[in-house]
Amino acid sequence: MNDSMSIPYLIMNASGVVQVVMFILILASILSWIVIFQRSFVIRRAKRAHQAFEERFWSGIDLNELYKETPSEQETVGAEHIFRAGFREFNRLLPKTRNPQSILEGVQRSMRVAWSREEERLNLHLVFLATVASASPYIGLFGTVWGIMGSFQSLSMAQQATLATVAPWIAEALIATAMGLFAAIPAVIFYNRLSSASGKLLGKYEDFAEEFHSILHRNLQGRGTSEEA
Amino acid sequence: MARHDQRVGYGLPAMLAIGLHVLVVIISMLSLPSRDSDPTDASVVQATLIRAETTTDQALRNEDDSGGAESSEDDSESEEPSESTEEPSEPEEPPEQSEEEPEEQESVDQEAAEQEREEARQAALAEAERRQQEAERLEQQREEEQRRREEEQRRQEEAERQRQEEEEQRRQEEAERQRQEEEEQRRQEEEQRRQEEAERQRQEEEEQRRQEEAERQRQEEEEQRRQEEAERQRQEEEEQRRQEEAERAAEAASGSLDRAIAGEEEAIANARQAEEAANSFQNLVKRYVEQAWNVPPDADSDTVALVRLRLLPTGELVETNVIQSSGSDSFDRSVIRAVERAAPFREMRDLPPGAQRRFREFNLRFSPGDVS
């Protein structure tokens, strides 16, 4: 009795469908936890990098120097990436056109592209978390329903319907639901947490882009007036 | 700036995630055995048929004997009465002691009272004597005064100092003598008193001694009685033990016979039980069939159908035949349908094999009103 009611025994002796469900749920749980850890690290680093970059940016450093400091390969992330994209576009467009409006438009476009890339990077795999959070309870329920179905089928064959004949089946069936919840609860919690954190970061990037755009705009206005004069 | 490790790999998170799951599994394995021990006790209540009737008490005891538990039980039974006979004798002692104590107290009290009485008597006697003595003394004084007056008169009459002196001397001598006599008397009286007191004391002592002796005798008798009782008990116990041993020996000697008798009685009991079970089974079948039977509305109360049932040992219905038709087709059909609906009779499996054989094939008589 003690042996036959332990969780490993129940899992090993479950029917095929329930075992498949359990396997899927375990896999989902492991993957969701991988995503949770990875995203947590990514977002924490992005936050730290953004703070450091903002400090550097507002320290009064020359924008050209700042641009040259960063390596030319496409490795930059976050606000730095947006800054580089905007500044590169600005530098490229500056000698080609004299119209400040078109320059600013080009800069804005390139910055929007960089921002959306950042958004994609930050929200990577968060959808998977959401999927696990919403689907795994249903998968677990499916396993439970299937197991209880099997228990009733076996009950119909048994001569005497005692609790002892039903209990293992139902326990085994309920393990599937437990696993579904086990996978879903952390997924829900961390999806909310991580998506809000990434949303906040993206908001900061947007603010930075606007500020940078206004700086460039000021710069162009000054030059335009000086050239006109 | 730490831009070189901006990309976060999946190795570390994967390891962390798998480690977390392994941890959860280990915790569940560790904590579950203790949690599982509780539901193990929650076994389903299973009622089993208990034999309602036994042939005799002896049969029961013989069964116990065959189980080998009788000897110890008998021992405990024989020991228990002996203990219970001993036990009441023991609490008798404290009251006796407590009775003796009051007796002693009473004797002491009696003695004290007697002594007091004695003393009072003595005091009264002494006072009476004193009074007597005083009266005597008064008388003597009166006499002396008279004598003195006479002598005075004589002295006055003779008026001679010498004679007076002589008389004085004589008087003195007489007084001396009287005093001596008085003293003698007093001494004698005292002697008497002393003798009386000694007598009384001796008597008291004797009384005391007698009482003590009586006490001692009583105690001794009680002791003897107690010893005798203990002896008797011990003898009785020994007797009992000897008898039991003899019985046991006899049982051992005639064990095979007893066992045979026990077996027979058990068989009788089993048969009776089987009969009982069979009766209950019959009643059950009857009840089931009655419940399942829809009596056709057009059936008369005196229509009768006899149906033969054949059952498997598991209680499954093999076939039903109408042996004696009621004459009405619908009635017969309803009867057969009732039996089929009531089947299977699972209680068949609980019957003893002998009864099962009886019920492999049996008849049921249907008539609206009752099934038999």
Automatic annotation (TrEMBL), chain A:
Subcellular location: Cell inner membrane; Cell membrane
Keyword Cell cycle on entry: yes
GO cellular component: plasma membrane
Superkingdom: Bacteria
This protein's UniProt keywords: Cell cycle, Cell division, Cell inner membrane, Cell membrane, Membrane, Transmembrane, Transmembrane helix
Topology versus the membrane: Multi-pass membrane protein
GO BP term, pick one: bacteriocin transport
Entry keyword annotation includes Transmembrane helix: yes
Principal location class: membrane
Transmembrane segments: 20-38, 126-149, 169-191
Sequence ranges assigned to domain MotA/TolQ/ExbB proton channel in this UniProt record: 79-206
Quaternary organization: The Tol-Pal system is composed of five core proteins: the inner membrane proteins TolA, TolQ and TolR, the periplasmic protein TolB and the outer membrane protein Pal. They form a network linking the inner and outer membranes and the peptidoglycan layer.
Function of the protein: Part of the Tol-Pal system, which plays a role in outer membrane invagination during cell division and is important for maintaining outer membrane integrity.
Family: Belongs to the ExbB/TolQ family.
Name of the protein described by the UniProt record: Tol-Pal system protein TolQ
Species: Aidingimonas halophila
UniProtKB/TrEMBL annotation, chain B:
InterPro entries cross-referenced by the UniProt entry: Tol-Pal_TolA, TonB/TolA_C
Chief place of localization: membrane
Topology within the bilayer: Single-pass membrane protein
Biased composition (Basic and acidic residues): 114-250
Record's keyword terms, sorted: Cell cycle, Cell division, Membrane, Transmembrane, Transmembrane helix
GO CC, alphabetical: membrane
UniProt key word rRNA processing: no
Cell compartment(s), UniProt: Membrane
TM spans (from-to): 12-32
Pfam families listed in its UniProt record: TonB_2
Compositionally biased region (Acidic residues): 65-113
Record GO biological process: bacteriocin transport; cell division
Nucleotide-binding in keyword set: no
MF terms in GO: toxin transmembrane transporter activity
Region of interest (Disordered), residue spans: 50-261
Protein name (record): Cell division and transport-associated protein TolA
